Each structure stands twice: as C-alpha cells, then as structure tokens.
Amino acid sequence: MTDNTSGAKAQTEPVSQAPTFLPAADIYETNDAVVMLLEMPGADPQSLNVTLDKRTLTITASSKPFAPQGYTLVHAEYEDGNYERAFTLSELVDGDRIDAEFKDGVLRLTLPKATPSPAKKINVRAA
C-alpha cells in the first residue's frame, strides 16, 4: 500500500496467512427467481456470511482443518482457507426475500425476482 501524500510505502501487517479461494458458481434463472450454487468444500457452516449492500451480494466463509480423532493426515488435496465472492445484482432481484441453504459443501442461494411495478400515468401540469 502506498501513502498518497508522500509516496512512501506504508507498513502493513498480514491479516491472515490462509489463502482466499473464489468459489465456483453455477447460476440458473427460472420464471420466478435466480438460483446460485456455490461450491465451498470444507466450509464451516457457522462461518458462512451472506450480505447484500445496495446491489452487491457478498459471500464469505472459512474452512477449518478436519481430522477425525485418532487419525493422522497422510495426504491432503483440499487446502484450508477462506472463501470470498461478490456479485452485482440487477434491479430484478427482490433483496428482501433472498434465501440461503448450505448442504454438502454447496451454498444454494435463491434470489426471487421482484414484482414489476405496474405502468402508471403521470399528469402534466400546464405552466
């Protein structure tokens, strides 16, 4: 990070040594909703955080090392770390009715479509 006033390098501290992964996502559209499936293997359900700020949907989670009691890890292909992904939603999504479910390492988000406003006539005043 650079200090904009002096151009000097600002000192920083690492927040986390864990890597951050971009979860793979499949997005489907139905007549009533947009459905998102995000793969987050090993994610701790308690760490899942889904937020909507204005039109930005942000998903974060973290995974913890898992080893059954009495077992020693011999080989690992999953790396522990954090998951983070953000999407910009269209005006067609009703942000107040988003539903989230996490099962078998997959986060399913159902984003209901907003009901379109009916057309209305606007009266024009003569000046």
UniProtKB/TrEMBL annotation:
Recorded coiled-coil stretches: none
Tell me which domain of life the UniProt entry assigns to the organism this sequence originates from: Bacteria
Pinpoint the SHSP domain residues: 16-127
One family name in Pfam for this protein: HSP20
The record's section on Gene3D superfamilies has: 2.60.40.790
Question: Which PANTHER family does the entry mention?
Answer: HEAT-SHOCK PROTEIN 20 FAMILY MEMBER
Similarity annotation: Belongs to the small heat shock protein (HSP20) family.
Record-given protein name? Heat-shock protein Hsp20
